[in-house]
Amino acid sequence: MEALRRAANVTKDIIDEVITKKLDVKSLSSASNRTICLADFGCAVGPNTFTSLQSLDIVKKKYLSQFPNEPMPEFQVFFNDQPSNDFNTLFRSLPPDREYFAAGVPGSFHGRVFPKSSLHVVQSNYALHWLSKIPESLVDKNSPAWNKGKIHYAGASDEVLKAYGERWAEDLNNFLNARAEEIVPGGMVIVIMPSIPDGMPYSELANGLLYSSFESTLLDMSKRVCQ
Ligand SMILES: C[S@@+](CC[C@H](N)C(=O)[O-])C[C@H]1O[C@@H](n2cnc3c(N)ncnc32)[C@H](O)[C@@H]1O
């Protein structure tokens, strides 16, 4: 979680630049009865979701710099995650001095969770790489992508990589199609997610090493159970 917080600080400048250059806060606000709606997709239980709501502060800063004598619009922030997320913990840790109205919205971000044209700024931090489900071919003994004895794609065959890649491409497509319906014209979608340098072997990634060690532990455990 500390790593995610540090990463959020790194991305702040980029988000600041994009919102400052591209978001027309004034027209969004006047077209929506002076309420700006933001949504954080894959919020978890906090506290990162609050510090990572950088877009809200930047939108406010932009509005103030452009219209110093006008009253600030009101802000509504929706926190989305799967229904199994612990929203009670999230609500209990909402900052008491927050300057926005908060609501939780359960449901998979791979489908629609908001009405049409109802969001102005969408942010998703470190969540979009979560797949909607295991690619079926990985668990099919007759498939060339059967990932026997593994729980990840680090060190796996090209067929396994392809199966994971195809699942993610379809998930991303579903996410973008749903947000395209939910966001107002002129709104903005900000996605922050992990990536790797071109050509880096998956087996050398920090996550690859981590999952390989889980993998050998799970295999040991399953061997003991089967003995
Ligand atoms: C690594 S956490 C990131 C949490 C937070 N955004 C942050 O920056 O610390 C990923 C979150 O995405 C959520 N998530 C994964 N798939 C999801 C989906 N299809 N719909 C909604 N939330 C999802 C998970 O439940 C988890 O809470």
Automatic annotation (TrEMBL):
This is S-adenosylmethionine-dependent methyltransferase. It comes from Hevea brasiliensis (Para rubber tree). GO terms for molecular function: methyltransferase activity. Transmembrane segments: none annotated. It comes from the Eukaryota. InterPro entries: MeTrfase_7, SAM-dependent_MTases_sf.
